[in-house]
Amino acid sequence: MKELPLINRAHAYGKTAAIRSDSTEFTYEELLERSATLAATLLIDANDLDEARIAFLAPAGFDYVATQWAIWRAGGVVVPLCLSAADPELEYTLSDSETSSVVTTRELSTKVEALCQRLNIPLLIIEEMESASKNPLPEVDSSRRAMILYTSGTTSKPKGVVTTHTNNQAQIETLVEAWEWQATDCIPLFLPLHHIHGIINVLCCGLWKGATVETFPQFEIDTILNRVAADAYSLFMAVPTIYVKLISKLESLTDEERANIIHGFANMRLMVSGSAALPASVHEQWTDLTGQKLLERYGMTEIGMALSNPFHGERRPGAVGQPLPKVEIRLKSEKNELVTAEDEPGEIQVRGPGVFHEYWNRPEVTEESFDNGWFRTGDMAVIETGYYRIMGRLSVDIIKSGGYKLSALEIEAVLLQHTAIRECAIIGLPDDTWGEKVAAAVVLEEGEMLDIEALRSWCRDKLSNYKLPKQLLIVESLPRNAMGKVTKPAIRELF
User: Fold this and answer.
1) Start-to-end CA span in the chain (Å)
2) What is the block-wise mean pLDDT of the chain (495 residues), using blocks of 10 residues?
3) What are the DSSP calls for 369-413, one per residue?
4) Which helix (H) or strand (E) holds 77?
5) What is the structure's pLDDT at 56?
6) Among 449, 443, 447, 456, which residue's Cα sits nearest to residue 492?
7) How many domains does the chain have?
8) For the CA atoms of 202, 170, 382, 335, what is the dihedral angle to 10 degrees?
9) Structural domain contains residue 434
10) What is residue 465's predicted lDDT score, i.e. its pLDDT?
11) Cβ neighbours, 10 Å, residue 55
12) Which of 118, 140, 162 is the C-terminal boundary of a domain?
């Protein structure tokens, strides 16, 4: 019987450890057996789920993967649910995707039981799914819909991003080639499994190549660092926030306590940062601590990964590298003209086999999101000596001031280098003269004070390479009330 490539490849890995959780190992052979049983249970008397949407709620681990594979093997479309989602979010996802059934563990069933009853959606418990059926599973063509992931919904209600098996395979093969995945690899997985980062970049890439994925229900820093010290991993993928937490933890340890941890990180063949901009200062701190140069990349739910710093070659702090294999990238100006020169900003547009199929039940939005076959990401970037650098979202991160397009992300990264500043956010304030003025809200480190004159001088030096009109404003302090809540800050001119 013809099987989906991801499933078919697993037969060759047999008794190799596929998933490791809580010191328990599950082989590829066990994964195939269990997913076949679950698939038969899902089918009941049907021959094929025919792209029925099956939502599932499971922690990272063997049950998660077995359920995901079972839905695919039965011909369904997976709709992974967020473990921390509240009832309204879950209800929206189930209703919008027109889910036909929900699969979950016995432990998590209480989270969705009442909701499923209210929506009249069958609820299946993984531990109770045992089928005596010996009917063959359907042949599932790769052109079929495979998965619906929901966007964050920052500007409107979340949209269901539909990918086919072909789309997913292209995304996987791109990263396996670019980052040279190997069957001997072992990687920890602590990222959310309702997002593309954890599902495709870590889980599916690892299982495609016959590697071992060690799963955690969440980011358990001490447990993971103990495993790093034991030299357990060859790859590591995380978001910038996690690297900041790791730096803080390592700096709190004595030289003796962190020696083996540093050794474990240094021995890894690849460490990747993604899902948010990585401040250059964090990039440099991590290299100074561990000797590892983080590989930063750029992608999104609709396109998978599109740009990446090279596995071999310069990994430039603050840049996301160059197009990945089989991915085409172009920049379009606000005047709808192709940007060919370096240092000129334009919207990133992407074309390739990994680009998603559609937004679920939103044909008009889908059509509007493409420009003659190129997906419009809504992100601005520039090319600098061959490398792309992300400036931010067109809608919120690009500040138009004095004829310049300023990146809020860049200015935030600079201000975060100040020793007194722990957090900051850059926004544009309306201004009759400049269009928008740049403003910064900052949270200070414990016990620190901002001397505004010294900060003005520091900023002039640090921001001298930026084409900034000298209208930068900064919050001098964020006073807090008795309840610890941030009160309205006073904004003062920096220059």
Assistant:
1) 71
2) 92 97 94 95 92 97 97 98 91 96 96 96 94 82 97 75 98 98 97 95 98 95 96 96 93 93 97 87 92 95 97 93 97 91 92 97 96 94 92 69 67 80 78 67 80 74 57 48 42 46
3) TEETTEEEEEEEEEEETTEEEEEEETTTTEEEETTEEEEHHHHHH
4) strand 77-80
5) 96
6) 456
7) 2
8) -140
9) yes
10) 56
11) 24
12) 140
- β-strand pairing of 17-21 with 212-215: parallel
Half-sphere exposure of 72 (CA within 13 A, CB side): 26
In one-letter notation, the amino acid at residue 212 is T
Tokens of 479: 């006073």
Q: How far apart are CA 453 and CA 426, in angstroms?
A: 20
Give me the CATH number covering residue 41: 3.40.50.980
Looking up residue 452, the CATH number of its domain turns out to be: 3.30.300.30
| 8 Å CB contact between 227 and 213 | no
Among 105, 140, 175, residue at a domain's last position:
140
Output phi, psi for 441, to 5 deg.
Answer: -105, 130
Give the range of the structural domain holding residue 74, as residue numbers without chain letter: 5-140
**Which residues are CB-neighbours of 172 under 8 A, at least 6 positions away?**
6, 200, 204, 205, 208
Report the pLDDT value the prediction gives residue 487, as an integer from 0 to 100.
42
